[in-house]
Specification:
heterodimer; A: 132 residues; 4-stranded antiparallel β-sheet; 3 helices; globular; B: 185 residues; 3-stranded mixed β-sheet; 5 helices; 14% strand; disordered C terminus
């Protein structure tokens, strides 16, 4: 699975996710992260793209939950994403997200996730494993 | 407030012992795609254009699990999925079950912009792709030798594999049979 989230200096947000799915998946299976609200979601608060085990991500409505926690509970992007990923079954979920304020976060509960981010103030991060 | 971008190339059980020759190309590709996205944001392209641009680049990279490099179904075929969404308007588009479309993410965007719907799949999505004139390729374009081997290993183990989860020989056997990193979803 691959994905990207972006926000411009005016707070406009967008997300995109693409995948081939699981190795040895059943023919006809629809159920990975590029499903609106499950692994891919954006509104005026944040943009989210998830990766991992699609079935777990759909059951958890991972991407939408991050946005909902920001909208209805007033959590920060980082806290909302952390809460959702920690609540997902271990080893199933990673996500990238940006907020309308230009914040960025990339939590995961798998061993690793190929990921990178950059912000206008010059911050750049490229990482693979958890805890980096 | 300023611009920000993040991207991923899949999650899973990526072993820390991953051989450099396997990890380095992916890391280099991630850096390359990040720079493409940063340059596009600096050039004041819209976030929607930026995420499509970056994901197209990732789809074209055979070491990731989308587009070329797409993993195989139990029948040895590819069935690709993509989704795109605009935060301001909540407009979105998604596609599933693609077998010949070079860049699924761009077809998802066309679903968003050219249809009254948000999701097309399988034959209907392929027909829409032909109608829109997007680049289509023989399904063999997407299949790499590495993914043929991954499918073989997964079948032998009678299981599915997530992005980068190491192939295992038998159900319940956690010992990797190769130095590889089998892809899952």
């Amino acid at each position: 699975t691959v994905g990207c989230v972006a926000v411009d200096g005016h707070g406009n947000l967008a997300t995109a996710t693409s995948t081939g799915g699981f190795v040895n998946k059943m023919v006809g299976r629809i159920g990975d992260t590029p499903i609106v609200g499950a692994g891919t979601y954006a509104n005026k608060f944040c943009a989210v793209s998830a990766t991992g085990k699609g079935e777990a991500i759909i059951r958890g409505t991972i991407a939408r939950d991050v946005a909902a926690l920001m909208e209805y509970k007033g959590l920060s992007l980082k806290d909302a994403a952390k809460y959702v990923v920690e609540g997902a079954p271990s080893g199933t979920t990673g996500l990238i997200a940006v907020s309308a304020k230009g914040e960025v976060t990339m939590p995961l509960n798998t061993t690793g996730m190929y990921r990178a981010c950059a912000t206008e103030d010059g911050y750049t991060e490229v990482a693979i494993w958890a805890g980096e | 407030m300023g611009w920000a971008i993040a991207l991923h190339g899949g999650a899973g059980n990526i072993p820390r012992s991953l051989p450099l020759e396997r990890g380095k190309p992916r890391e280099a590709a991630i850096r390359h795609c990040l720079q493409i996205g940063v340059d596009a944001l600096k050039a004041h392209q819209s976030p929607l254009d930026v995420v499509e641009l970056v994901v197209r680049e990732l789809e074209n990279h055979p070491n990731f699990n989308a587009g070329r490099g797409s993993v195989l179904t139990s029948h040895g075929t590819v069935e690709m999925e993509a989704c795109i969404m605009d935060g301001n308007t909540k407009r979105c588009g998604a596609v599933s079950g693609l077998t010949t479309v070079k860049n699924a993410i761009s077809l998802a965007r066309l679903v968003m912009e050219k249809t009254p719907h948000i999701y097309l799949a399988f034959d209907g999505a392929e027909a829409f792709a032909r109608e829109q004139g997007v680049e289509m390729l023989d399904p063999t374009h997407f299949i790499t030798p590495e993914n043929i081997e991954r499918l073989k290993q997964a079948k032998e183990a009678n299981r599915v594999q997530l992005d980068y989860t190491q192939p295992i020989k038998n159900v319940g056997d956690e010992i990797p049979v190769s130095e590889g990193d089998g892809q899952i979803g």
